[in-house]
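Each record in this resource describes a single protein on a pair of labelled lines. With that in mind, the following record should read easily:

===
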Amino acid sequence: MGSQKDNLLVDVAIGLAAGFVATKVTEFAQEALYRPMPESVKQAEEAVRPGPPPEVAARKTMQAIGHPLGQQKLKLRASR
């Protein structure tokens, strides 16, 4: 049974590493695409964005589990 536990730990470590690498590659690609974008397009995107991505994610997550957040708690959750 020790080998199953070892395999699980290896699988978790690989998953964490893969997720980290994928996130960094995605950030790099998004930045490369965002830089040459005309300023008017950037402003139009900002105008329709419902808020900073971490706050949007925190709000949607808490609403999905039935615990809507006030503005102060939303900022705290999004900053973690």
